[in-house]
Amino acid sequence: MKSGSAARGFFGSQLGVVLASAGSAVGLGNIWRFPTEVGKGGGAAFILIYFGFILLFSMPIMISEFVIGRSARSNAIGAFQKLAPGKPWVAAGIMGVLAGFHVLSYYSVVAGWTLYYTVQSAIGQLGGQSSTDFAAVFNAFVSHPWQPVVYLALFLLLTHFVVSRGIERGIERYSKLMMPLLFMIIVLLVCFSLMMPGAADGIRFLLKPDLNEVTPDVILGAMGQAFFSLSVGIGCLVTYASYFSNETRLVGSAMSVCAIDTLVAVLSGFIIFPTVFSVGISPDAGPGLVFITLPNVFALSFSEMPVAGYIFSLLFYVLLLLAALTSSISMHEICTAFISEHFNKGRRTAAAIVTIICLMLGCFCSLSFGPWKDVTILGRGFFDLFDYTVTKFLMPLGGLLITLFVGWWLDRELVERQLTNDGSISIRAMKPLLFLIRWVAPVGILLIFLNELFPLFMKS
Ligand code: PHE
User: Fold this and answer.
1) Which residues have CB under 6 Å of ligand 1?
2) What is the mean pLDDT of residues 375-388?
3) What ranges do the domains of the chain cover?
4) Per DSSP, what are the bridge partners of residue 380?
5) Is a pLDDT exceeding 50 seen at residue 237?
6) Is 128 helix (H, G, I), strand (E, B) or coil?
7) What distance in angstroms lies between residue 100's CA and the mean position of ligand 1's atoms?
8) Cα separations in angstroms, 269 against 26, 109, 115, 255
9) Is the pLDDT of residue 127 over 70?
10) Separation of CA 188 and ligand 1 centre (Å)
11) Cα of 277 from ligand 1 centre, angstroms
């Protein structure tokens, strides 16, 4: 029998494991946040630094989360309670579940915008139209008192639908369906975008590092992005790994997920920058890049070819939507698994509780772009506050605790047995891997914290 315990559910295949975990990793973080950060961080130099952090921090944390999840076979909080009963390590799990609720709430707001833009492009409002003021369109939509809330609710319902169907019939099945579709759309869009006149400038921006652009902020941005993009530090992958079978190769799977996520991020760069440069728009447009700049690009470059513009813009927003959905289900699952196991509720009830809580929190975040613009806590609106707390605090702190837990507290033999599937496979790089988990990742993360905390303290 598969050892994922039938009652808890399990992933039915190695492909399912990799596609579901890669689905969690590949998301708005790759297609929306990565190009934005690359644009602000000066292109290729940022990308090089980002690669370094993936290798040195995110991959060791991901492998540590897999070890915790599969050895405990429990939700993010239950796992720490099982492996370290009565010890304060459970704080890492509690932070993870809290972060899960917060990240899903604000992520769904942006995903809701994506859903709106998908509908708009489907009805022909985006591609091939000329000279609309897209910034005004975007601002009017996000600050509308109820429209974005409706789209937020619709997106959360989609997420709810997949999660409430369970691991194999819900998460695994839909990941297997959506991820290949997502790759196909990406490849199509890259081809489209590379054929645009003037695309070469965009390619140069992505490939030629200019080290003068590297500032401490760029380095911090790259670190945050490496955490967010690989979904590490908040027990998401602890939860997924609790459904892995005993045959799942933890190190191999983590390497595949990191490779897929990085590839998708870079390919998204290849979709966006050649397009942006080809119409001469500045690449550092910030978060509006995919909702303001790109519609502009679609309009300018396809005004002569409305059909091509229609297809390009529709495919792009469908891609963004699929990517958002495969990630949001993993955030939802952190919370659903916890509520279902801790309070002994059925999956459907647990999922409904999570959806309702996130809908309420999500409304706060959505309204912070409109009617509640002036409501701030610590100088930030709800959306910003949630994003800041999750990416700048909960994720790095969670990552730090997780690597310390696996590197220093868990029994070394247990860790090695997990990594080698009870000695049935050999891991050639075991020593360097353990060194990354014990030293490099925790020390590195501590450095981020020092950098984050000081400016914060100076502000207050
Ligand atoms: N990795 C996802 C993305 O790139 C975001 C995410 C964060 C998913 C945390 C799950 C947990 O969009």
Assistant:
1) 24-25, 27-30, 103, 228-229, 231, 234, 236, 327, 330-331
2) 91
3) 14-459
4) 377
5) yes
6) coil
7) 10
8) 14, 23, 21, 21
9) no
10) 24
11) 28
279 vs 28: CA distance, rounded Å: 24
For residue 324, give the ligand 1 atom closest to its CA.
12
Residues 6 or more apart whose CB falls under 8 angstroms from that of 235 comprise 65, 75, 76, 77, 79, 92, 93, 96, 97, 99, 100, 334, 398
Residue 2: both structure tokens together: 């598969």
Residues 247/78, Cβ–Cβ less than 8 Å: no
Q: What predicted TM-score, i.e. pTM, was given to this entire model?
A: 0.93
Q: What percent of the chain has pLDDT over 70?
A: 95
Ligand 1 centroid–CA 198 distance in Å is: 33
Rounded distance between C-alpha atoms, residue 254 and residue 446, angstroms: 23
Q: What is the best residue among 65, 229, 237, 325 to mutate for testing ligand 1's pocket, by most ligand atoms within 8 Å of CB?
A: 229
Any long-range contacts for 418-427 (C-beta under 8 Å, 24+ apart)? 418/66, 418/67, 418/70, 418/71, 418/250, 419/63, 419/67, 419/250, 419/251, 421/246, 421/247, 421/248, 421/249, 421/250, 422/246, 425/249, 427/251
Residue nearest (by alpha carbon) to ligand 1 atom 7: 231
Distance 145 CA to ligand 1 centre (A): 27
Helix (H) or strand (E) run with residue 244 in it: none
Task: Give tens-digit pLDDT for 58-103.
Answer: 999 999 999 999 999 999 999 999 999 999 999 999 999 999 999 9
Per residue in 382-411, pLDDT (tens digit) is 999 998 899 888 998 999 999 999 999 999
Predicted local confidence at residue 1, as pLDDT? 35
pLDDT of 128 strictly over 80: no
pLDDT of residue 452: 67
Measured in Å, residue 241 CA sits from the centre of ligand 1 at: 16
Structure-block tokens of residue 100: 């899960």
Shortest-distance Cα residue to atom 9 of ligand 1: 231
Local confidence band at 157 (pLDDT 50, 70, 90 cut-offs): very high
Among candidates 61, 69, 54, 50, which has minimal Cα distance to 11?
69
pLDDT for the residue 305 = 78
Distance CA 407, CA 419 (A): 13
User: What's the pLDDT band for 284 if we cut at 50, 70, 90?
Assistant: confident
The encoded tokens of residue 270 equal 């290849």
Mean predicted confidence (pLDDT) in 429-439: 97
Overall fold of domain 14-459: Amino acid/polyamine transporter I (1.20.1740)
